[in-house]
Specification:
Blueprint: H1 6-9, H2 22-34, E1 39-43, H3 50-62, E2 70-74, H4 81-93, E3 103-108, H5 115-127, E4 132-138, H6 146-149, E5 152-156, H7 162-175, E6 179-180, H8 182-192, H9 196-207, E7 212-213, H10 215-222, H11 227-238, H12 242-256, H13 260-273, H14 279-297, H15 302-320, H16 328-342
Helix pairs in contact: 2-3, 7-8, 7-9, 8-9, 8-10, 9-10, 11-12, 11-13, 11-15, 12-15, 13-14, 14-15
Bound molecules: adenosine-5'-triphosphate (ATP) and magnesium ion.
């Protein structure tokens, strides 16, 4: 039996099945009702339903023959922008079908186009406006030139929230006959960071290991430290137990095969999850993470840098953690820095 990719198997087929993007779907449904739409600009992170919404919109608009009315292209096509432009022209010139008087061109990664290419695209959009509607998809709408932005209705897609992602994953696992623990589901969500494609891919990878999936299996697949292990490194450091924290950190790194960058990313994320942290301290720690991430990018030895980072956490804690929630020290430090800057 051919291996089916779950992200395709479970791709939403109608706008109703596109979850967690309610503001987007309700506006798109209005276009279906009126059988008309302007050019659209879909902006948002990976794997949150941009392509799915475009396909679902086309299906809802055109019915079974939708695929003849839609051209899907990737703007970063390695054969070059001319190939893309020619395909757009050929398709735009062909006749529209059925009772909907236009066709749709879905252009993925539109923000990868240079400014010049975007200006050319803008002209093409105008030339064929009668017969064609564009849906441009991008991660950042700010990378699209203003003349295109102003010709499009902009739709912002968000990372999927935890409850919705868990619902989707639960449904997929039920249909695939998997048993998931609650911990495994929430771990999958965390690892995916709201990217549904990533979550479904991870789930499929887990299913290749076992039918009963717990956090250990997810961890194996994600090969990322468990959040609680990383949290304990931070807590030890903030309690001033530098040596314990350091040992724990290197254990976690070796056990899970993490790079220094992975560790900093995890620590940074966990800082937001430790509820008991005072807000000012949280911000200081985030800044420290930023500094050390930069040093790693610059190519410093990761063990030395991580050790230094933990040392700084511990030292920082000596002055402030025990004083919680007294943050006068932080204020002083900040004022000193401000003074330095105004010099
Ligand atoms: N909002 C959603 N509701 C239900 N399933 C979703 C949603 N978003 C993503 N998925 C699942 O993830 C898969 C990938 O989503 P999709 O291709 O729509 O992402 P995208 O936003 O276009 O990402 P990219 O920017 O990487 O192209 C879908 O096939 C579907 O299985
Ligand atoms: Mg896409």
């Amino acid at each position: 039996m051919a291996l089916e990719i779950w992200t395709e198997k479970y791709r939403p087929k109608t706008l109703d099945q596109v979850r967690g993007q309610d503001a987007v779907s309700s506006r798109l449904k209005a276009f279906v009702k009126s059988k008309n739409m302007p050019h659209l600009l879909f902006a948002g992170p990976a794997g949150v339903g941009k392509t799915s919404a475009a396909v679902a919109l086309a299906k809802d608009l055109f019915g079974d023959n939708w695929s003849t009315a839609v051209l899907e292209l990737n703007a970063s096509d390695e054969r070059g922008i001319d190939v893309v432009r020619n395909k757009i022209k050929d398709f735009a010139r062909s006749r529209a079908i059925q009772d909907v008087p236009f066709k749709i061109i879905y252009l993925d990664e539109a923000d990868s186009l240079t400014k010049d290419a975007q200006h050319a695209l803008r002209r093409t959009m105008e030339d064929y406006a009668q017969s064609t509607r564009f849906i441009l998809s991008c991660n950042y709408s700010s990378k699209i030139i203003p003349p295109i932005q102003s010709r499009c209705a902009i739709f912002r897609f968000k990372p999927l929230p935890k409850d919705i992602m868990i619902k989707i994953l639960t449904e997929v696992s039920e249909r695939e006959g998997l048993m998931m623990t609650a911990g495994a589901l929430s771990f999958l969500y965390e690892a995916s960071e709201g990217d549904c494609r990533k979550a479904e891919n991870l789930l499929q990878a887990c299913s290749a290991i076992a039918q009963e999936i717990d956090t250990k299996i997810v961890e194996q697949v994600v090969s990322f430290a468990e959040p609680k292990e990383v949290a304990s490194v931070i807590e030890k450091a903030l309690a001033g137990k530098f040596l314990d924290a350091k040992e724990r950190l290197f254990d976690v790194m070796i056990k899970h095969g993490l790079s220094g960058m992975d560790v900093i990313a995890q620590i940074q994320k966990q800082i937001w999850n430790i509820d008991s942290l005072d807000e000012k301290i949280r911000l200081e720690l985030i800044k420290i993470c930023g500094d050390y991430e930069f040093r790693l990018v610059e190519g410093s030895n990761e063990f030395i840098q991580l050790e230094a980072m933990i040392a700084q956490f511990a030292q920082f804690a000596k002055g402030s953690w025990k004083l919680l929630p007294d943050i006068s020290l932080l204020h002083r430090r900040k004022e000193e820095k401000d003074d330095d800057r105004s010099d």
